[in-house]
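Q: What does the assembled structure look like for these inputs?
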Amino acid sequence: MDFSKELDARGLNCPLPIIKTKKALSELTSGQVLKVLSTDAGSVKDMQAFASQTGNELLGSEAQGSEYVFFLKKK
Amino acid sequence: MSQKKMALIASKGTLDMAYPPFILGSTAAALDYEVQIFFTFYGLQLLKKDLSDVKISPLANPAMPMPVPMPVLVSALPGMESMATMMMKQKIKSKGVASLEELRTACLESGVKMIGCQMTVDLFDFSHDQFIKETEYGGASTFLQFAGESDICLFI
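A:
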């Protein structure tokens, strides 16, 4: 998937992946896609909640072993 | 949709109890909530400029996991509190959990309003220059005005 920016949140625990995602999104313009890498198993549910609460669309979410990859489209 | 609001009372000043208000505050702000935290009694310690005095105690805290079983009387020995705090901070770091400073900064950067309880300032003879400059001061009415309009309201 094409993306404009990548955020490496691996090794960080709750709530840092979400806080850093919010910050990274603020540097994008509407419609651009942010890729987020995480190792926090809680971030799967957290990212869904973040997307539904903030209106930034979660385009995709996949687990690769103990790593998680998310694609968020800025509102 | 109008902006959601969250009102918290932070009443405790130990390392473990400092986490919930700062985690929820910073995360709620990231989720576009307007957030106010009212720091009262021991919670006011969390607004001190220097957070290195914030400690955890194994005393009266039987649920705290210890590396070896520890009798209460041993936990009461001098230096045990500092040791427990040091060990907890190491654990926090090694697990990628944010430090209190980091979370408080995240709160401030995202516009979380920090209200210090003026009555507590008077009660313990504190002065405003001991606290971070972003602190606003007020009392119960200040909190209730915002809390009354809030969607989430928690006492911690």
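The mean pLDDT of chain B is 95.
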